[in-house]
Amino acid sequence: MTTSFAPLTVAIGDLVPHPANVRSNSPETYDLENIAHLKASIAVLGLLQPLIVQKLDGKYAVLAGGRRHAALKELGADKATKGFTAKTKIDCRLVPDDCDVTTALSLAENITQAPMNAIDEFEAFARMMEVDGQTPETIAKTFGTAVAAVKGRLRYGLIHPAIRAAARAKTITLDTMKAFAEHPSQEVQREVYEALTKDGGYLQAYTVRQALKSRGVQVSDDIGAFVREDYEARGGAIAADLLEEHSVLEDAALVETILLEKLGAAAEEARMRLGFAWADAMVRYDYTTMAEYGRIYPGPVEPDEAAQKRIDEITAELEKLQLEMEDEGLEDDTYNALYERVDALEEEARDLQEAYSTEDLARAGVIASWSAGKVTLHVGLVRPEDNVKEEGARGSLANMPGEEAPDAGEISYPASLAEDLKTERAMALGAAMALHPEATLDLTFFKLVSDVLASGMSVTQAIKVEARKEYRSHATMDKIDETSLEQVAAAHDALDLSWLDDTRAPADQFAAFRALEAGEKARLVAYATASTTQSCFARDRQRDSLMHAFEIEVMPDIRAHWTPNAALFNRFKKAWLLKILGEDLGLAQEAVTLASSSKKEIVAFCDKLFAEPFATLTDAQRAAVAAWCPPMMQTAGVAFDEAEPTAETPEPDSEVAQAA
After folding, report:
1. What is the distance between the alpha carbons of residues 112 and 218, in angstroms, rounded to a whole number?
2. Cβ(376)–Cβ(263) under 8 Å?
3. What CDD domains does this protein's entry cite (predicted)?
């Protein structure tokens, strides 16, 4: 049976919702934000599809077309919209009063309209511009959407027809088709498509994007933005895109030429400012190629009165900034601004206290490269033919064979951080000693009798046998890794302290102590000795051979007692963190990806990585993460023992300066 619906026009004000409308129980469907596009379309194009209505109680109830009805009511109430009021009549179709399939009609209206194919939508937008002469702005107004959203659809609708046809035929995925929009030239799209599909095989969006990168540089790319002004001045061709940021500088060779020129100019400026002998440039700093280069470093100089005054000012300001940065409620922008200020001040302070020797300047140079979206300077490099094998001038350091030349992000550990790392290492060593009671007992007894019976100096100053617990200061004791603290606490809990009773006389306590088993005494002495270890870095064999050997025995790996955490990483410069990830841990791709992130994000990544190494790590990366620590914190091993010392061992009071 076929039901016919008579056409009629009904004033917007005479329309009401129909109780049989299948969306009547979903009022959110008619919220303004959900019908904004529809309202805009009706305002521009009018009502393209009549409403299905039925006469109920003197009104016309909308059985099918509830969202259009809601949009019409909004238009009627919107005084800024012309042509729509409560009296405006719109086209409808009337359902007879005796119709018994009203709910079915409403459902059919809503579910029998197939959603529009994405490619059809993209192409429809493109035709509106190409055939109908509309602009992205007029299309956006018609559909009540943002101009940028329209341009995004238009870009896909303007992809080469052959590629759109492949997507429609499901030869390639929709995402792969979209990847071709990375380059606005249909000719380039076609050439890349044919090159990638000539041998068959599955085509991926990633492969497409990589291939298009060789056909030009987008203006929004960091290199594109850096060279664009000079590129345009030289008449370089630009493939314009509807979205300006996707326009492409098509002459890749000219882009590289200009980039190298600008890098070369930056290198030359640094050469003249610092007094180096030569300057060079490379687009990407090739660490493999540069491994044979040496590097010289500035040595300490005595600042004059004016310089010392400025250093004191910088020190005071750095202390103030450090306190501000410890506020966990800081916004990222504020934190980054403080971080950049600290970085600049520390660099200024170093420049006032360090200088290159004349001999080193005469053979060293600077290379500028492009890294993390900016010019990076690699200073103090020495070409292989100019490298000296003997001890160089003040501050110089020739690379050992196979040693990779460090870059401008060289980790130099400021004095305050070095002091705190010493404290953390002492705590880890104390934990190791508490866990090796027999060895520590022997060490304690040996020191006691040797210091008394032997002639000359003490066998080691690393531990004190004077019944006094060592006080260890630390800038942020509440934020350090607690592994060593937990291990020492566990060792304490295992002690037999039944003899320790302040209500008893010392002689009675001593008698109870003597009655303990030898193993219990060893644990007590080990715990007490562990508590006296002084803050320090790895021992130097030449200065303290006893503790050098003892640390190797009880603490061959500090990571068994200590793990780097966010508190440590937060005190590292962003460049240091990226260097550690890329070079020390073998996570080069992650370092490149994180280069554009904020320091807070990088710190969080490192903290998570060390807390529980990711399942996606290779065996080599996992081993590197498990072993990494600041070099001077790890106990020197056998390989270090066999190496000849290359520099005079510093005195105790200069140890921090040496580490920093």
Report:
1. 43
2. no
3. ParB_N_like
Handedness of CA 29, 33, 34, 38 (dihedral sign): positive
Beta bridge partners of residue 368, listed in sequence order: 281, 377
| Residue 547 φ then ψ, to 5° | -70, -30
Relative orientation angle of helices 415-434 and 483-493, to the nearest 10 degrees: 30
| 333, two tokens | 């922008």
Residues with Cβ within 8 Å of 3's Cβ and at least 6 positions away in sequence, in order, are 95, 96, 99, 101
Tens-digit pLDDT profile for residues 572-631: 888 889 999 999 999 988 888 888 888 888 999 999 999 988 888 999 999 999 999 998
Cβ within 8 Å of residue 502, ≥6 positions away: none
Nearest to 13 by CA among 45, 59, 48: 59
Whether the model clears a pTM of 0.90, i.e. scores above it, the answer is: no
Closest CA to 431 of 555, 557, 322, 341: 555
Residue 451: pLDDT band by 50, 70, 90 thresholds? low
Residues 6+ apart with CB under 8 A from 586: 618, 620, 621, 624
In angstroms, rounded to a whole number, what is the distance separating the alpha carbons of residues 62 and 301?
88
Residue type, 503: T
Give me the sign of the Cα torsion angle 144, 145, 146, 147.
negative
Distance, CA of 296 to CA of 365 (rounded, Å): 9
Q: Which of 220, 212, 209 lies closest to 247 in space, CA to CA?
A: 220
The residue with tokens 């020190």 is: 315
Report pLDDT digits (tens) over 286-330.
776 777 888 888 888 888 899 999 999 998 998 888 888 878 788
Contact assessment for residue 473 and residue 423, using Cβ atoms and an 8 Å cutoff: yes
**What's the CATH architecture for 6-112?**
Alpha-Beta Complex (3.90)
Distances (CA, A) of 126 to 55, 174, 198: 42, 17, 28
Give the residue from 427, 459, 424 showing the smallest Cα distance to 443. Answer: 459
Length of the chain: 660
Beta pairing class for 59-64 and 51-56 = antiparallel
Q: Give the residues across from 379 on adjacent strands.
A: 366
Tokens (6 digits) for 592: 């490149």
- Domains of the chain, by residue range, sit at 6-112, 264-382, 431-535, 553-633
Maximum alpha-carbon separation in the chain: 120
User: Cβ atoms within 10 A of the Cβ of 462, count?
Assistant: 21
Specify the DSSP element, H or E, that contains 364. strand 364-371
| Alpha carbons 496 and 520: distance in angstroms, whole number | 7
Cβ within 8 Å of residue 280, ≥6 positions away: 264, 267, 365, 366, 367, 368
